[in-house]
Amino acid sequence: MVKPASKNLGILIGLIGVVLFSSKAIMVKLAYLYQVDTLSLLLLRMGFALPFYIAILCYLEYKKSSKIGAKTFLWLLLFGFVGYYLASYFDFLGLKYIKAGLERIILFIYPTIVVLLSYVFLKIKVSKKQRIAIAITYLGVLITFWKELSVTGSNVWLGVLLVIFSAITYASYLVGSGWLIPKLGVLRFTCYAMIVSTVCILIHYSATTPLKTVLNLATPVYIYGLGMAIIATLMPSFLVSCSIKTIGANSFSILGSVGPISTIVLAYLFLGEKLSWLQLLGMLVVIMGIIYLSINKQKP
């Protein structure tokens, strides 16, 4: 049983992690102004972060000599592959065919997928509070992006399918991390998962794109790449893992609804995008869902 103080701290940590992750979209949009391709940005994001993960992991392995079993290591490879590699890649591909608003709506079906996977594979029951919180936050996201739900253009359904795959792979990562983190610890699990994801991206990039492409980009692109690595990858990856350890994958998945909301606010602040009253109402509903999740009922 998680203590109320620990639960609320876990929710706060998770929210900070989600907001930092959402800053990636702003930096990507700013970098796109310099005609950079998606895969190069993905490589810069993970490549700049890689030395930090390796250094932290080396320190942890030096201080803690316990070995990882072969079965656990294979699970690490799997969840590292699907988590920050496949999920990101499917999402970026899907955005080629559908509007960002529609993408966010589809992507945020992942809380339900997390709940279903946790129930099927880990036999974790869904509480009434979690079901209500999911419903409230879904409603808020729908209100926020209601005007962006028009589905037009070629290959739209291909884009929809790709983003659904992204939601499924990310949900699988969350469920897997909720199971593996207690075995390995927050820092150790995160470092291994992110290193695996980076290696996957490096292999993909080297197989499809000349290496000189990433070496001949505009200087601001490298600055945004470093920002994505530290602010939108390194820091939130540890915060998210810590939050999952504290409150569980099911509850954390609900916090993810803040992601598209924080993206709108950051876009308003840094990109000058307009903010409508309908979007403000949707944000308020999402916040209500998070507050409801964090309320601890006192027994008489």
TrEMBL record:
Organism's domain of life? Answer: Bacteria
- Cellular component terms, GO, for this chain's entry? plasma membrane
> What are the record keywords, sorted?
Cell membrane, Membrane, Transmembrane, Transmembrane helix
Membrane-crossing residue ranges in chain numbering: 41-60, 72-90, 102-120, 132-149, 155-174, 186-207, 219-240, 252-271, 277-295
Topology in the membrane? Answer: Multi-pass membrane protein
Transmembrane keyword on record = yes
Q: Which residues form the EamA domain?
A: 9-145, 158-294
Q: Which InterPro entries match?
A: Diverse_Substrate_Transporter, EamA_dom, EmrE-like
Where in or outside the cell it occurs: the entry states: Cell membrane
Name used for this protein in its record: EamA family transporter
Q: Which organism is it from?
A: Croceivirga radicis
Query: What's the source species' lineage?
Result: Bacteria, Pseudomonadati, Bacteroidota, Flavobacteriia, Flavobacteriales
